Amino acid sequence: MGGGIGSRFWPFSRESYPKQFLDFFGTGRSLLQQTFDRFNKIIPTENIYIVSNEKYASLIKQQLPELGENQILMEPTRRNTAPCIAYAAYHIYACNPDANIVVAPSDHLILKEEQFLQDVSQALEFVKNNKALVTLGIKPSRPETGYGYIQSSDRMIGEFTKVKTFTEKPNLELAKVFYESGEFFWNSGLFVWNIATILDAFHKFLPDITTRFDLGKDKFNTDGEQAFIHENFPYCPNISIDYGVMEKADNVYMLCVDFGWADLGTWGSLYDLAQKEESGNAPLKNKVLFYESGNNIVALEDPEKLAVIQGLDDYIVAESGNVLLICKKADEQRIKQYVADVQLKFGKEYN
Amino acid sequence: MGGGIGSRFWPFSRESYPKQFLDFFGTGRSLLQQTFDRFNKIIPTENIYIVSNEKYASLIKQQLPELGENQILMEPTRRNTAPCIAYAAYHIYACNPDANIVVAPSDHLILKEEQFLQDVSQALEFVKNNKALVTLGIKPSRPETGYGYIQSSDRMIGEFTKVKTFTEKPNLELAKVFYESGEFFWNSGLFVWNIATILDAFHKFLPDITTRFDLGKDKFNTDGEQAFIHENFPYCPNISIDYGVMEKADNVYMLCVDFGWADLGTWGSLYDLAQKEESGNAPLKNKVLFYESGNNIVALEDPEKLAVIQGLDDYIVAESGNVLLICKKADEQRIKQYVADVQLKFGKEYN
User: Fold this and answer.
1) Strands B287-291 and B184-194: what pairing?
2) From the CB of residue B205, how many other CB atoms can be counted at a distance below 10 Å?
3) Do B326 and A317 touch (CB under 8 A)?
């Protein structure tokens, strides 16, 4: 899945160039490319599909030239993860009605790749033999309030735990309870299932989508697919797979994993992961002289640019293209509003 | 005089491109060009000389192509204003031993040009007939601590007051006394005198300079000037005209003027002059959205660049070339130190 805007990462992530296409850590590969590289070690290139907004098609082709034209599934409008995953499921079903599928966001960081690949392989093996919707639950390392949590039960099939509930992002107090209980795991948004299992679930819980898609069932993986999707996709409800399917289904299982995962969702999450100086400052890839300053994250697009920062604590200083952003780390959830305000006041060229 | 580095205006003002060559207000003309334009209304082009460090010669030629080669007087090393003014005086004497001279910094802002030209003309007329060293004293509009002051006496020749003393920059308490007394005026660094009068004063108070320059008297305004200056100028003492001559001479007169003058010496002085929003923020030439922020000055080199600033009060945010500076306005006197630290740590390319 690579269709998000990543507006909480503005001004680095722009609607015209979202975060999944960016190389945040200066490794030479964007988050999307890293995600592809990672899976490509266990999944053949021709079995990897990217679902994204059609306006990012050329960016994806540019970053992943090894993909065939029919491996980029283009959404004509922005919906949420449920329609995105349904579209891919129908397409893959037309290619192979026995497929086992991993669904993954394209903007996550995974530090222990070996462990990750092992866990994914194990889950793929599991769903081949069990009509289960599998989610990878991350063992929490701190009482994080930025992620949703999954509560495990004591019913197991092998190493797979039946899920009791999905929860929204908790407040700090609740997050501490979750963390200490040992029963709760971070919801990574990484799913594994057999094609038949997920299509059953869509039919049961999101008939608005399946009724439409079933009418064009013979169009998927043909020349008629794009026109069909263009006409019908916009009618799909704007709903996440968690809310639309996972929270309702009674065959959801979790594999508890620990492969150095992080959702690079916000500047704060990037700060948490970044290398920090003794002062707690994280100059992402620039030379920065700090005076009386601590716990800032500084990211300037041009790695040759130097910053001198005095008298700032707990700020984001981010510069990219035609925008400089300076705001308190604690207020980063307001960045989306800033982007909207800027667009209203100065037009779309800053989005 | 256009040889300063203006390091208190870093990163806009660089050693390689000091502030006098910059167009701070987006008018289309640099401070140097504005100074030239202003004087050119009453002084013919061929009578205007720029004294500057030799490394800025090509910048000056570029910005003022109307000047002849021999109108740019190049200092081989950085001294202070006394050697600079002495050099120009010897050169001008060789061109015209009866000249009346206005000495002006090239980085000042003057808002009431008509009044300025009238005052300068009046002073030129005065020094033609009086062996006086004239300084233009600015009627203070506030108890400013950033300028030196000149104390007037009650001895007058026409509208010209004999000067009692020159003072260093006062603290706020003293500045208030100065301001309320009506006796003290800002030292603008604008001087007017006849060539004979200033050369007499140099001989009297700075024989270190004149002894040397007199040896090469016949070299000035000839092909031999540059070589002579190259050899001898470095031996001049590093001393200001105020300290070296004006404070010692007993023929110093002041014309009290009021032509909307400001020394663009620091970010703070620029802030004081800039147009401000209701919040007290001064976005110099950029689009800036401020949230919970007040009394900041924001200057980004690219006028198309937009900034979003949240939770900042009384800061300088300045970006130019390969440097971004964020620091408290109250600590701007430390900028010189930052520049030195950056050079020490990261090399000269950021100066």
Assistant:
1) unpaired
2) 20
3) yes
**pLDDT of B207 above 80:** yes
- Using CA atoms, how far residue A117 sits from A28, A85, B122, in Å, is 22, 21, 86
Are B139 and B256 a contacting pair, CB within 8 Å?
yes
* Tokens at A166, concatenated: 């999905």
Length of chain A: 351
Mean per-residue pLDDT, B284-305: 93
Closest B-chain CA to A321: B305
Shortest Cα–Cα distance, B77 to chain A (Å):
29
Say how far residue B312 (Cα) sits from the centre of its chain.
Answer: 31
CA distance A107 to B175: 59
Enumerate the β-bridge partners of residue A108.
A263
Phi, psi of A265 (to 5 degrees): -90, -30
Other C-beta atoms lying within 10 Å of the C-beta of residue A151: 17
Question: Reduced to 3 states, what is the DSSP secondary structure of residue B153?
Answer: strand
Q: What are the structure tokens assigned to B150, written together?
A: 């000149």
Q: Say yes or no: ipTM exceeds 0.90.
A: no
Please count the CA atoms within 13 angstroms of the CA of A87 that sit on its side-chain side: 32
Mutation site, B287, B324, B331, B344, interface A, largest A CB count within 10 A: B324
Three-state secondary structure call for residue A310: strand
pLDDT of B27 over the 80 cut: no
Indicate yes or no: CB of B302 within 8 angstroms of CB of A317.
no
Residue in A with minimal Cα distance to B292 = A327
At A273 the pLDDT is: 79
The reply to whether residue B342 touches residue A289, judged by beta carbons under 8 angstroms, is yes
The angle at the Cα of A289, spanning A285 to A290, to the nearest 5 degrees, equals 110
Task: Give the C-alpha distances (Å, rounded to integers) separating B125 from A125, B99, B143, B192, B296.
Answer: 99, 11, 31, 10, 44
User: Which of A7, A277, A289, A310 should one mutate to test binding to chain B, selecting the residue with the greatest count of B CBs within 10 A?
Assistant: A310
Closest by CA to B302, choosing from B288, B316, B282, is B288
Query: Which residue in chain A is spatially nearest to B314 when comparing CA positions?
Result: A311
- Measured between beta carbons, which residues in chain A are less than 8 angstroms from residue B291? 327, 334, 338
Sequence-distant (6+) residues with CB within 8 A of B89 are: B101, B195, B198, B199, B202
Q: In whole angstroms, what is the distance from residue B234 CA to residue B209 CA?
A: 10
**In the prediction, which pLDDT does B318 show?**
94
Q: Which of A11, A308, A346 sits opposite B342 (nearest CB)?
A: A308
Taking the complete model, does pTM exceed 0.80, yes or no? no
Query: Rounded distance, CA B277 to CA B89, Å?
Result: 45
Position B8 pLDDT exceeds 90: no
- Say how many CA atoms lie within 13 Å of A321 toward its Cβ: 13
Structure tokens that stand for B31 in this block: 């401070």
The dihedral built from the CA positions of residue A331, A332, A337 and A341, taken in this order, carries a sign that is positive
Which of the four pLDDT bands, split at 50, 70 and 90, describes residue B350? Answer: confident
* B chain contacts of residue A343, beta-carbon cutoff 8 Å: none
Those residues with Cβ within 8 angstroms of residue B273's Cβ, 6 or more apart along the chain or in another chain: B109, B262, B264
CB contact under 8 A, B300 and A324: yes
Mean pLDDT by 10 residues, chain A (351 residues): 87 88 83 96 97 95 96 95 97 97 94 94 98 96 88 95 93 94 95 98 98 96 96 96 95 95 83 89 92 96 92 95 93 90 89 79
Element (H, E) at A58: helix A57-63
For A320, name the nearest residue in chain B, comparing CA atoms only: B305
Judged by CB atoms closer than 8 Å, whether chains meet at A306 and B346 is answered as yes
CB contact under 8 A, A327 and B311: yes
